[in-house]
Amino acid sequence: MFGLSNPQRFMAFTGPLTPVLWGLAAVLLGVGAWLSFTVPADYQQGDTVRIMFVHVPAATLGLGAYAALGVSSFFTLVFRHALADAAARAAALPGAAFTALALFTGSLWGQPMWGTWWVWDARLTSVLVLFLFYLGYMALRASIDDEQKAGRAAAVLGLVGLINLPIVKFSVDWWNTLHQPASFLTPGSSGLDPVYLPPFLTMLAAYGVLFAALWLTAIRTEIRRRRVMTLRGRLAQEA
């Protein structure tokens, strides 16, 4: 894996891999959507249970993307590696999109279940804070013209935001919240009805592969952009 920290080797390795991931994501999303609409409605929640197949994977990938951003920020600060900085930057927008989708679908799910679109619940509030960290990271990078300074400043913010991840994960255990606790992979067994496992796991895999495709594509685009900027700088100096 450390061999891939070289941008040239990274580009060579991910070149053929990226379209495969895009194709696999499309297949999994198609199968997952079909399974989600063909399973029976829940006896309590009715058809609104189908929101789970979008909401839970989106929330999971929102957390996962920020973990990727935070780890990449660590390598940016410690080793000052350009590829790590590119990886952190590339994770921000997809992660923010997944988190926004989780907040939106959570509201759609919460209104019929709780009778309200939003409450300042520990889980909901901590996910909103996660979304704000994403926005803050992108805004900070955009506000500083010097790319190296922008990368280091944003990396510090990215590391600070990691503190929020365990709060999001364990908020339903630490506080008395309206949000339900984890119903999948609970100690002993899954609290999810077996009939919903195939669409749930398929959509979770689809979102994971989709993020991988988005992330690698964004990193590759960022590497190309930096190469063009470097070339322009050299040409300007020669001129």
TrEMBL record:
The keyword Electron transport is annotated on this UniProt entry: no
Name the predominant localization.
Answer: membrane
List, in alphabetical order, the Gene Ontology terms for molecular function in this entry. Answer: heme binding; heme transmembrane transporter activity
Instruction: Name the Pfam families on file.
Output: Cytochrom_C_asm (PF01578)
Organism superkingdom = Bacteria
UniProt GO BP: cytochrome complex assembly
This protein's membrane topology, according to the annotation, is: Multi-pass membrane protein
Q: What does this protein do?
A: Required for the export of heme to the periplasm for the biogenesis of c-type cytochromes.
Q: Which family does it belong to?
A: Belongs to the CcmC/CycZ/HelC family.
Please report the name of this protein according to its UniProt entry: Heme exporter protein C
Lineage per the UniProt record: Bacteria, Pseudomonadati, Pseudomonadota, Alphaproteobacteria, Caulobacterales
